[in-house]
Amino acid sequence: MTRIVGLDFGTTNSALAVRGGDSQPRLASFDSAATFRSILFFDADEHGPAARARPAAGAAAIAHYLDSGGNGRLLLSLKSFLADRNFSATDIFGRRFTLEELISLILVPIRQTAERQFGDLGRRAVVGRPVRFSGADNADDEERALRRMRTALAIAGWEEVIFQYEPVAAAYHYGAGVDTEQILLVGDFGGGTSDFSLMRIRPRAGMPPRYDILASEGVAAAGDAFDGRIVHHLVAPELGLGSCYRTVYGRVLPMPALVYSRLERWHQLSMLKAPATMTRLRELHAQALEPDKIAAFIRIVQEDLAYALFAAVERTKLALSANDHAEFEFTAPPLALRQHTAREKFEHWIAAERRQISECIDRLLSAAAAAPKQVDRVFLTGGSSMVPAIRKIFTDRFDPSIVRAGDEFTSVAKGLALYQE
User: Fold this and answer.
1) Residues forming a β-bridge with 398
2) Using CA atoms, how far apart are residues 45 and 302, in angstroms rounded to an integer?
């Protein structure tokens, strides 16, 4: 049997697993970690041949970003752009990079690192995809996302690609240990999307289980959106959201919401650095009634402090998953934030996303003509599966004793490597 490569390219983290023969999948290790951060950083002072910007990816991108003091271009959540018809390329220090090229700059070091551990990975891979791509409004958008992903994978050396829904892959991982027939609901919570599949698992003696997909659904409400809510309520007001500016005609107007909506979306934050946007921010600073707040906003954008902001938000979200209260701390002089917040507030902030996820589960069950009591097991994976308010969506709808979670960041990659023709 040929080796199977399972690749989970994620909005926030990526993972790769390899299976040979009848063996269990083995995860690639990235500096002793099981996942690779889906991040790129272009250092403004480092250039390769022909003075072209030379990027770093993953943990190296974070290290370069911190060492340079943010002097460069940090790109996060590139997967969220795949379906976007309005974004195809961006200019980075004088060179135009397509989205496919940017994603390949993450995929290539993932492949190279894995090949140092497993040898040549070949031209074929089983790759995860969300049920609904973030930002996809129709079939054309979905096809655009898959086409772009295929191109990026080909640049990285994978010319033969089999796409599989991410929650189905997680079901393969879970089903490897099942010894009785059951109906399984899998929820995979990523950075950009939350995806679900309802499946019947039929164990077979001496053979891999049979999987019958009853229904799959997805929604663009996930970890990045939760982070954005924290930014909106704890950070954006200190950067001018809700304040006003005075026009040259003397009118007092609220600060435009668009720039703050981009601040709340990690994949759009680096786009605030575009010349036209920076010009507009400087105009607003000159007209602001609270100019210090706009100055702090400009500094965050200009110096690419997105990662530090992201890290502070992530720490707060994790703390609220474990405790009823948490301290949010973020320092970027002249801005220094330290705010006490509560899990109850956070759950109120993400009420719209919780409702979207809940309605998605209802659609899933309806599509399969299944009642909650017919579900034998619920398996949740992905970072946001640890958020108590998200877990409650399932424990309210299903018997809490059947709801399980595990391998939050690697179950999809391992399941992809278990793919059977």
Assistant:
1) none
2) 15
Give the contacts of 250 (CB within 8 A, at least 6 positions apart).
none
Is the overall model pTM greater than 0.85, yes or no? Answer: yes
Cα separation, 170 vs 186, in Å, equals 7
Q: State pLDDT tens for residues 39-61.
A: 999 988 766 555 566 799 999 99
Cα–Cα distance between 367 and 363 in angstroms, integer? Answer: 6
- Tell me how far apart the terminal alpha carbons of the chain are, to the nearest angstrom: 11
| Helix H or strand E encompassing 40 | strand 39-47
Residue in 326, 332, 291, 289 with CA at minimum distance from that of residue 310: 332
Give me the long-range contacts of 147-154 (CB less than 8 A, separation at least 24). 148/82, 148/99, 148/100, 148/103, 149/9, 149/82, 149/103, 151/100, 152/99, 152/100, 152/101, 152/103, 152/104, 152/107, 153/7, 153/104, 153/107, 153/125, 153/127
Structural domains of the chain, with CATH: 4-165 (3.30.420.40), 242-338 (no CATH)
| Distance (Å, whole) CA 341 – CA 338 | 10
| 341-378 pLDDT tens trace | 999 999 999 999 999 999 999 999 999 999 999 999 99
